[in-house]
Amino acid sequence: MPETILYVDDDAANALVFAATLGGRFHVLTTTSGAEALDLLKSQEIAVLIADQRMPRMTGVELLEIAARDYVETVRILVTAYSDLDAAIGAINRGQVSRYIRKPWTPEELAAVIGEAIEVYRMRSQLRVLEARLREAERVYAVGVVAASIAHDLRNPLMIVQGAIDLMRRGLSDDPASGSPGGPATETPRRGTTRMLLFLREAEAAIARMADIIAGMNASQRSMSATTTEDLAQVVRLSIACLHGALRRRGSLSVELQAVPPVKGSPTALSQVLLNLLVNALEALPEGPDARSVVTVRLLSDGEAAVVEVEDTGAGIEPHVLERVFDPFFTTKEDGGTGLGLAISKRIVDEIGGTIRVTSEPGAGARFTVRLPLAPSA
């Protein structure tokens, strides 16, 4: 179903003209009061809300201010006469509306404005879905990093236990050289040791089950390599859009995107990598706007892989920190961050056969370079 446009004007004739003029191009609803408009916003999803400024009981700015607070994804447009331009400019400055249209409007102008607003709404909707997926992926991969670490740490103790069981079996048997790890004992047990050997076999069976669990924990992390991202540039753009406002408040953003072939890995997982790198670059910049603060994002292809670079002009990374930036739970943040962002990013990239590297010098910023293998079809 096409996105819905809601037009609010206390003059029923204006609402009728709006519906007649643009109803063939868009899915249009009209109403003559702010209260009715709020009821419609509660009952269905509205992509674009267009309100006339001069309405009794609730002005257009007042209506759009409520919509800005309660329906943040809806794109808001104010229709105003020349005498109300100050109110329109004030509404734009306070973030209540994205733009205004002066009366009398023309169908062509209004159609163009609505078309642009719908594209903005679609982008916001994509970002909402992406953010939800990223939150879920963050939880899944955080658990995966911990699980993989636990699985790795359990291998050595299990081997030690298995070796101790072998030694105990040999010590209980008449023939110390008999028996084989994990297999049934063929020796003639000493008197009174039959039950002890049975217990040892049960312990070995339990160790085998634990080894299977560990193998399963590692195998569960390898399914992502089968997925493909067709448009990596779009993934980069959406990731930048998530943090564009925060980046601009710190400095400037430079984006250099080239067309690249499809790559291995899911869009959600690769978005998480990019967001982690962008957040890392953002936090490396000093507080407040500074013309010298720049975050640069590049996307290019070297023929064998797609390459993503995220570079900042921050304080750089000390050598003793540089060698640990990808370690799980390692962080230098004063607010006590989790230390999982870069570790998760490295795990995602490693699982699809890519690489992630960082170069930095104190006082000279940092550059993270991600190489992503091309999909087999590419």
Cα distance spanning the termini? 34 Å
Rg for CA atoms: 31 Å
Number of strands: 12
Beta-strand percent range? 15-25%
Characterize the biggest β-sheet.
5 strands, parallel
Q: What's the average pLDDT?
A: 80
Helix and strand content put the structural class at alpha/beta
Specify the overall morphology. Answer: elongated
Oligomer state equals single chain
Number of helices: 10
Order of adjacent strands in the largest pleated sheet: 2-1-3-4-5
String of helices and strands: EHEHEHEHEHHEHEEHEEHHEE
Low-confidence stretches: 175-189
Helicity, as a percent range: 40-55%
Task: Give your account of this protein's structure.
The longest helix has 66 residues, at 107-172. This protein has a five-stranded parallel β-sheet, with helices on both faces. Residues 175-189 have low confidence and may be disordered. The radius of gyration is 31 Å and the shape is elongated. The two termini are 34 Å apart. Strand 9 and strand 10 form a beta hairpin. The protein has helices spanning 12-22, 34-43, 60-70, 85-93, 107-172, 194-219, 232-250, 267-284, 319-322, 341-351; strands spanning 4-8, 27-31, 48-52, 75-80, 99-102, 228-229, 252-257, 263-264, 294-301, 305-312, 355-360, 366-373. It contains ten helices and twelve strands. Helix 5 (107-172) runs antiparallel to helix 6 and helix 5 crosses helix 8. By secondary structure, it is α/β, with parallel strands linked by helices.
